[in-house]
């Protein structure tokens, strides 16, 4: 028998999450320059192209650039308290290394913030979300080059000067740990992954970490009331068996992700991470200023995405690998999977929340979680909709576990499920991999009216927010 869930705390930030390159479109409007996404027409899974191609759905995406007012009104109808979106770096600095920003780009985000304020929705802004300006990738090899710290600093100072009095919550880099697995998309590193040395890769990681701490420092100078968070991809790793070697293998894999939170929260490299670098033959160039920035400018909160858990083993005969998001892992034989092979583990979210809270004692923000699925637009009572009971079940089960974590004593700031409106997938560049509460009439071949339709989950999430989670079914 199901039972209802205790209401979530007052002030809990309910909302939804997106990224500029996956919703905005208008890739060459308003003075915008090219980003790495403009040469990734098929997403993460295929090599980059030499230049923009006509088959890149992200060039139009869902046309949020022109339809933001309509979309934000729909978010308000659901009762959003917050909306997570990213700023396209190449809208503000088209090449990335200019001395002065592009006013048209800044004015666009002024208009977005105006609309959010009109509806009483708190902005949650990601500064860099998988869209390094293409020029920085091609000329500087992205974050391998220390010069990017200075270019990012100029960009960040521009954002905090312009919007610091309007935006409280900021994230420095999206899924910063993903650079280890997707160096071009996450770090703008133009050197092909199979040719990239471990030394250059981890030096790029260091530069991003320093830049993240620098952003926190700048925020405290220019926007002292702002709250700055890091953003990591959470993927809890379970031992496949109770064999101690499997347990240790799981710990090692888990630490490869936990290290990024450790550095953001504690301000220094953990011993296990330094050992990994030593054994990989990596000697980082770290200045005294770098060390001071990391130590003195730690984050106010930790945000993360959560989609899947994985298993780990030392037994090569049991390594049947499945991919979830960016990270590969060993499949868990006890779990079911989505249409794209991502294993569904609601309890893993409670596990992550407790692990992170016990480890860092910083407020936690779930800024991505959701189910990508092939939705079917149908007519019900004369209205076009999607009967997405599978999405409702997925989100209900995950939110129940968030409630359990809150009852455990974890400080959870909010929940912004990924793709609150249908958008272009980062991994596959498909629109058919839909996450939203709002259906957007556009297909993988680029056809469609771009009309918006409320899915069944739209009303469900509206009720969840209005009841502070009391309508969830445990």
Describe this structure in a few short sentences.
By secondary structure, this protein is of the alpha/beta class. Helix content is 38%, strand content 15%. The chain has helices at residues 20-23, 64-78, 89-92, 103-118, 134-140, 147-163, 183-187, 198-222, 244-266, 271-279, 288-296, 346-360, 389-408, 456-466, and strands at residues 13-17, 82-86, 122-128, 169-173, 227-234, 237-239, 301-306, 310-312, 321-324, 327-330, 364-368, 378-380, 383-385, 412-415, 438-440, 452-454.
Explain this structure:
With 474 residues, the protein is an alpha/beta fold. It has one domain: TIM Barrel (Alpha-Beta Barrel). The protein is built from 14 helices and 16 strands. The chain has helices spanning 20-23, 64-78, 89-92, 103-118, 134-140, 147-163, 183-187, 198-222, 244-266, 271-279, 288-296, 346-360, 389-408, 456-466; strands spanning 13-17, 82-86, 122-128, 169-173, 227-234, 237-239, 301-306, 310-312, 321-324, 327-330, 364-368, 378-380, 383-385, 412-415, 438-440, 452-454. An eight-stranded parallel barrel has the order 1-2-3-4-5-7-11-14, surrounded by five helices. It is globular, with a radius of gyration of 21 Å.
């Amino acid at each position: 028998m199901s039972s209802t869930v205790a209401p979530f705390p007052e002030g809990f930030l309910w909302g939804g999450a997106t990224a500029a390159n996956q919703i905005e479109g208008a890739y060459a409007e308003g003075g915008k320059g090219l980003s790495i996404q403009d040469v990734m027409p098929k997403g993460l899974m295929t090599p980059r192209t030499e230049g923009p191609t006509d088959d890149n759905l992200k060039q139009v995406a869902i046309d949020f650039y022109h339809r933001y007012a309509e979309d934000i009104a729909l978010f308000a109808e659901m009762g959003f308290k917050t909306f997570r979106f990213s700023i396209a770096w190449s809208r503000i600095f088209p090449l990335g290394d200019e001395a002065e920003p592009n006013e048209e780009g800044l004015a666009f985000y002024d208009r977005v913030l105006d609309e959010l304020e009109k509806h009483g929705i708190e902005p949650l802004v990601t500064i860099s979300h998988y869209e390094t300006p293409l020029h920085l990738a091609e000329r500087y090899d992205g974050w391998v080059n220390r010069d990017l710290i200075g270019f990012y600093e100029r960009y960040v100072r521009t954002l905090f000067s312009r919007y610091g009095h309007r935006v409280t919550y900021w994230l420095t880099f999206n899924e910063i740990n993903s650079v280890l697995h997707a160096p071009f998309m996450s770090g703008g590193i133009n050197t092909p992954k199979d040719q990239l040395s471990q030394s250059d890769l981890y030096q790029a990681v260091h530069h991003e970490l320093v830049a993240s701490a620098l952003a926190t420092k700048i925020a405290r100078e220019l926007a002292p009331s702002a709250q700055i968070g890091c953003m990591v991809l959470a993927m809890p790793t379970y031992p496949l068996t109770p064999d101690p070697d499997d347990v240790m293998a799981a710990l090692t894999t888990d630490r490869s992700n936990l290290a990024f939170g450790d550095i953001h929260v504690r301000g220094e490299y953990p011993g296990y991470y330094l050992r990994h670098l030593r054994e990989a033959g990596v000697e980082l160039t770290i200045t005294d200023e770098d060390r001071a920035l990391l130590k003195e400018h730690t984050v106010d909160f930790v945000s993360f995405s959560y989609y899947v858990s994985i298993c780990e083993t030392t037994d090569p005969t049991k390594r049947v690998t499945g991919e979830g998001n960016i990270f590969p892992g060993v499949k868990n034989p006890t779990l079911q999977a989505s249409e794209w092979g991502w294993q569904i583990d609601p309890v893993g979210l409670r596990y992550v929340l407790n692990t992170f809270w016990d480890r860092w004692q910083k407020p936690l923000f779930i800024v991505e979680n959701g189910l990508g699925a092939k939705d079917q637009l149908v007519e019900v009572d004369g209205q076009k909709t999607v009967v997405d009971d599978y999405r409702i079940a997925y989100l209900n089960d995950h939110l129940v576990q968030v409630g359990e974590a809150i009852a455990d004593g974890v400080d959870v700031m909010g929940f912004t499920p990924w793709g609150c409106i249908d958008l272009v997938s980062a991994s596959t560049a498909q629109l058919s991999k839909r996450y939203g509460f709002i259906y957007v009439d556009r297909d993988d071949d680029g056809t469609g009216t771009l009309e918006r339709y409320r899915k069944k989950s739209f009303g469900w999430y509206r009720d969840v927010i209005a009841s502070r989670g009391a309508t969830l079914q445990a």
